[in-house]
């Protein structure tokens, strides 16, 4: 771990050359949060001291950037997961397969970190809010858009429940890729396609 | 917490009167495991010392009953979840609704404990094996039986993938009831029925 706090000070450089030292500290702090959670530190037990020590920065460096632990955790999760995949406007089926094929697969680190957040998500309303805002809601929203389009073009039943349908599409993949809920699904090559086809047949107009 | 180890010894009573002291210690040990996990102790950090202290028994009392932590945890989870609900042989639809209506709802304690096991399940092959053996596999098996019956009577497509179908039926309910994946589903009264109906339409013969 680079001791960023001990890097030689280069006065002026920070502002004029893309703030390299600043952004390195920023990255190191986000990485430190992920490292600690991945190793088993609960969100509750996660302290600014531990994060600062792991990132090799002073606590003041963290507080200059984030008002508190919640804000820092939120940014860390948003960065970990990245922006949701966007539909391209193909067929409803092709767009759903495109969105679902990345569920739990973009990043091995996310696969390791997400289950570690579940105890906290179920215990703490604040952790739940952050998880919803940073991760689950933006992903549901892109999928709702595709389903609304399917209804508009008359492909899907006008009275389908969009929330239930989104959950039916994402949940089996999420549970399997995050915690390998059923090991036998490892052998199913076309899992995403099968799920999309069963649901689309189930909600066809 | 009753200090069971300090109960007055009643020689002979244990064997002739249904072993009341013994079974109370047994229950207290299982309860202690659940308490500790619920409060945030990871399976990894769970120690026989802590369990013994919490249950008010000596460590020897634990080791007389279980060979090790894995066996103790397995029995605790089996007891927590109870045996899977059995189908009654109604229509396929009615049986699926019966089996699914209890997913994540039998016991509020299970709802609190299960998310706490997820970090361990994803980190430790041993915790994963125990979770599969004690909880997920017996529940999948009763549901497979109902689907096989549906195929046999010609109601469901003969070439449906049973593992995928089981996962599509259980996963949305599991994710919602364990970690409230989508808060908007709270307002859906007939969630189980909707899921069963979409899947059955999707895999109809």
For the biggest sheet of chain A, the summary is: none
The helix/strand class of chain A is mainly alpha
What is the CATH superfamily of the largest domain in chain A?
Tetracycline Repressor, domain 2
Q: How many strand units of chain A?
A: 0
Share in β-strands of chain A: under 5%
The Cα radius of gyration of chain A reads: 21 Å
- The average pLDDT score of chain A comes to 85
Work out the helicity level of chain A.
55-70%
- Give the terminus-to-terminus CA distance of chain A: 57 Å
Shape of chain A: elongated
**Shape-level CATH architecture of the largest domain in chain A:** Orthogonal Bundle
The first-level CATH class name of the largest domain in chain A: Mainly Alpha
Determine the most extensive contact between two protein chains: A-B, 47 and 47 residues
InterPro entries (chains A, B): Homeodomain-like_sf, HTH-type_TetR-like_transc_reg, HTH_TetR, Tet_transcr_reg_TetR-rel_C_sf, TetR_C
DNA-binding region (chains A, B): 47-66
Region (Disordered) (chains A, B): 1-24
Keywords (chains A, B): DNA-binding, Transcription, Transcription regulation
Brief synopsis:
The structure is a homodimer of 205-residue chains. The first copy, chain A, has 205 residues and is mostly helical.
Structure description:
Chains A, B: InterPro entries: Homeodomain-like_sf, HTH-type_TetR-like_transc_reg, HTH_TetR, Tet_transcr_reg_TetR-rel_C_sf, TetR_C. Chains A, B: Residues 47-66 bind DNA. Chains A, B: Keywords: DNA-binding, Transcription, Transcription regulation. Chains A, B: It comes from Catellatospora aurea. Chains A, B: Pfam families: TetR_C_11, TetR_N. The structure is a homodimer of 205-residue chains. The first copy, chain A, has 205 residues and is mainly α. Chain A has two domains: 4-78, Tetracycline Repressor, domain 2 (Orthogonal Bundle), CATH 1.10.357.10; 84-202, Orthogonal Bundle (Tetracycline Repressor, domain 2). In chain A, 65% of the residues lie in helices and 0% in strands. Chain A has helices at residues 13-16, 20-38, 48-55, 59-65, 69-81, 92-100, 108-123, 125-152, 162-179, 191-202. In chain A, helix 7 crosses helix 8 (125-152). In chain A, 36% of the residues are buried. Chains A and B meet through helix 7, helix 8, helix 9 and helix 10 of A and helix 7, helix 8, helix 9 and helix 10 of B.
């Amino acid at each position: 771990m680079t001791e960023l706090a001990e890097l030689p000070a280069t006065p002026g450089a920070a502002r004029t050359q893309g703030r390299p030292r600043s952004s390195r500290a920023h990255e190191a702090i986000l990485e430190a949060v992920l490292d600690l959670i991945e190793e088993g530190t609960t969100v509750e037990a996660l302290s600014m001291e531990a994060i600062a020590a792991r990132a090799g920065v002073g606590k003041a460096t963290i507080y200059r950037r984030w008002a508190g632990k919640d804000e820092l955790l939120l940014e860390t999760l948003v960065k970990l997961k990245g922006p949701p995949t966007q539909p391209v406007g193909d067929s409803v089926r092709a767009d759903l397969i495109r969105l679902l094929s990345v569920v739990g697969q973009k990043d091995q680190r996310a696969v390791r970190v997400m289950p570690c957040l579940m105890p906290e998500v179920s215990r703490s309303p604040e952790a739940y809010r952050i998880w919803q805002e940073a991760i689950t809601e933006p992903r549901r929203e892109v999928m709702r858009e595709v389903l609304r389009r399917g209804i508009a073009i008359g492909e899907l039943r006008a009275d389908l429940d969009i929330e239930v349908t989104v959950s039916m599409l994402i949940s089996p993949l999420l549970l399997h890729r995050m915690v390998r809920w059923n090991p036998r699904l490892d052998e199913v090559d076309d899992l995403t396609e099968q799920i999309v086809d069963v649901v689309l047949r189930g909600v066809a107009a």
